[in-house]
């Protein structure tokens, strides 16, 4: 009698196949999970190494970045505030102190740059490595570098003058010139009308609105800055003076301004105070035949809104300057303020 193998029922075969597939699937998923964990671990390690490398490079660049040698100072000089005397001091010092001085010459003596020139200017002086460190000067309004996405801002400095004194000086300058270029014939040469007579006759050359210049120079390139009597412009000029200017001095005490700069920015102004006092640079450009206005003229001018606003900016600038000057030394002592780090943790 022939032996016959038992026939496996189909349902047991199906169960066995399913069980085998399940075992293989679990094994595959387990293996895949381990591989993914290992991959994530490697990625995390690589990312940590990358971040460490980035931080190291940042610190290396920070440690090696020479702030003094990349310094840019902009002196957006207001006309008739003693700026020629100060600029020539910088030209005298630039070779000795190893920095560049460059004049910003805008077409037609305009004080505002076109939008295209604004962008070109900020890019140019930011990237012009061969000219760093540098002091740029010119009769132009304040320009905000952060508006154009620049990685760093220059240091702004300026001088400000009593508004009526500045207007009177400019009035006679147009008629008689100055001792800086005595042979140059000025636009109003031959006009013998005094400033007092001009005010009495209400002529255009002594219009109080002509005093509206220091506010827009500190306010900037916005259209409102150049609207005489604009209260927003005055507020913006004050904000910029405090937040965007490294130091603002005033014409009547230029020697103190030079002294403060020498202490604060020795990279440019080392030796400036001695040079200023001994080189006849303190009154380099003086207007010829200037006649002080009489009491009635002064009262008329000071009654105008423009004078009041310009004078408010002047007084505000003087207040800031005196505050900075006072904080340079210890109270009651002629000792410069200093600082140090301590209690540094962890050790």
TrEMBL record:
**Top-level lineage group:** Eukaryota
State the Pfam families in the record.
Sulfotransfer_2
Record field: transmembrane: 12-30
| Gene3D superfamilies in the cross-refs | P-loop containing nucleotide triphosphate hydrolases
Q: What is its main location?
A: Golgi
| Membrane topology summary | Single-pass type II membrane protein
Which Gene Ontology MF annotations are present?
Answer: heparan sulfate 2-sulfotransferase activity
Keywords, A to Z, come to: Disulfide bond, Glycoprotein, Golgi apparatus, Membrane, Signal-anchor, Transferase, Transmembrane, Transmembrane helix
Instruction: State the coiled-coil residue ranges.
Output: none
Gene Ontology terms: biological process: heparan sulfate proteoglycan biosynthetic process
Which GO CC annotations does the UniProt entry carry?
Answer: Golgi membrane
> Where is it localised?
Golgi apparatus membrane
What family does the Swiss-Prot or TrEMBL record give for this protein?
A: Belongs to the sulfotransferase 3 family.
Quaternary data? Homotrimer.
PANTHER family per the UniProt record, alphabetical: HEPARAN SULFATE 2-O-SULFOTRANSFERASE (PTHR12129), HEPARAN SULFATE 2-O-SULFOTRANSFERASE 1 (PTHR12129:SF17)
Protein name, please? Putative heparin sulfate o-sulfotransferase-like protein
Q: Which organism is it from?
A: Nyssomyia neivai
């Amino acid at each position: 009698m022939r032996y016959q193998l038992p026939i496996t029922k189909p349902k047991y075969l199906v169960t066995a196949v399913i069980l085998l597939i399940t075992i293989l699937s679990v094994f595959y998923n387990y293996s895949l999970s381990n591989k993914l964990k290992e991959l994530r671990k490697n990625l995390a390690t690589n990312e940590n190494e990358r971040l460490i490398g980035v931080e190291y490079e940042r610190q290396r660049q920070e440690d090696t970045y020479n702030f003094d040698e990349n310094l840019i100072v902009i002196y957006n000089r207001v006309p008739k505030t003693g700026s020629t005397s100060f600029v020539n001091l910088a030209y005298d010092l630039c070779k000795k102190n190893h920095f560049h001085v460059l004049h910003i010459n805008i077409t037609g003596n305009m004080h505002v740059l076109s939008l295209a020139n604004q962008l070109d200017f900020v890019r140019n002086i930011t990237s012009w490595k061969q000219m760093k460190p540098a002091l740029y000067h010119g009769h132009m309004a304040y320009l905000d570098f952060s508006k154009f996405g620049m990685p760093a801002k220059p240091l702004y400095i300026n001088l400000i003058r009593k508004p009526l004194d500045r207007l009177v000086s400019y009035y006679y300058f147009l008629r008689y010139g100055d001792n800086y270029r005595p042979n140059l014939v000025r636009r109003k040469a031959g006009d013998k009308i005094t400033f007092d007579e001009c005010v009495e006759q209400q002529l255009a050359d002594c219009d109080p609105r002509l005093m509206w210049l220091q506010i827009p120079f500190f306010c900037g390139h916005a259209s409102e800055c150049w609207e005489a009597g604009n209260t927003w412009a005055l507020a913006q000029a004050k904000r910029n003076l405090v937040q965007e200017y490294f130091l603002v001095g005033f014409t009547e005490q230029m020697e103190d301004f030079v002294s403060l700069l020498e202490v604060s920015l020795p990279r440019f102004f080392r030796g400036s105070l001695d040079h200023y006092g001994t080189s006849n640079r303190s009154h380099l450009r003086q207007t010829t035949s200037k006649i002080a206005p009489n009491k009635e003229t002064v009262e008329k001018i000071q009654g105008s809104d423009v004078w009041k606003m310009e004078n408010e900016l002047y007084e505000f600038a003087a207040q800031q300057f005196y505050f900075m000057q006072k904080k340079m030394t210890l109270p009651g002592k002629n000792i410069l303020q200093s600082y140090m780090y301590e209690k540094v943790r962890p050790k």
